[in-house]
Amino acid sequence: MSSTNFSLASKVKLSNGKLMPQIQLGLYQMSGREARASVRWALASGYRGFDSAQMYRNEKEAGQGIRDFLNSAENTEGLKREDLFYTTKLISNSTSYDAVRQSIRQSIRACGLRYIDLFLLHSPFGGPEARLTTWKAVEDAIEAGEIKSGGVSNFGVRHIEELMASNPRIPPVVNQIELHPFNTQIKIRAVCAKYGITLEAYSPLAQAQRMKNPEIVMLSKKYKCTPAQLMIRWSLQNGFVPLPKSVKQERLLENANIGWFEISDEDMEKMEELHEGLVTDW
Q: Is the pTM of this model over 0.90?
């Protein structure tokens, strides 16, 4: 059983030594207006990590929400850009190195945050040449200071093995995948552990499709928490970085209020057994 009192202040150390918030706000399926407002609410509530993407079409507003907060009276802690963690993702891999570098720079201009903390390849689509060319561009962007860390998203076992077999100068530090008790991704978890790649969990609440599952309901009652809190806690105790999403201020707080209970080893195993290969999105 985990002994960690997880909170919005909790961080994980990536394989490159950099620290990343362990609970972050996902901005998927948010309009620009929703993203700008949610980011500001989240910062006031203690969130320090935000996950956007070129495909989400809210990079500009996410960055604006961050800058709004930093320059406002709400920023009572005197937070600076360096205190926050911003992630975005490449919309598609390319065999054109220059096109990828240009796309990275466009994301930096869009968010207005000077650099990107974590830049991910959003998918493995495009074939081996595109994946490896794209990764070379990410490596060079890291060396140029445009990006602090690089990673991948939706990469399966063979895609991870392919990238690592290419002997990258800078290995990926993150693989962001759909990950929750109803899709436990055991094989991908194993290969990422092998290479020291941190797993980020998108759709950690299974997009609310299993909130009424009898086991989830029973365990939520046992721990006196909501089903959402239970599933986020499961993710954290497994060492993942969950990215719960909400446009409601009260849910932002509730989703992060998971430091007051621990799921027993036995119940963690019960939740693992809920696996059904449920894919809610990708």
A: yes
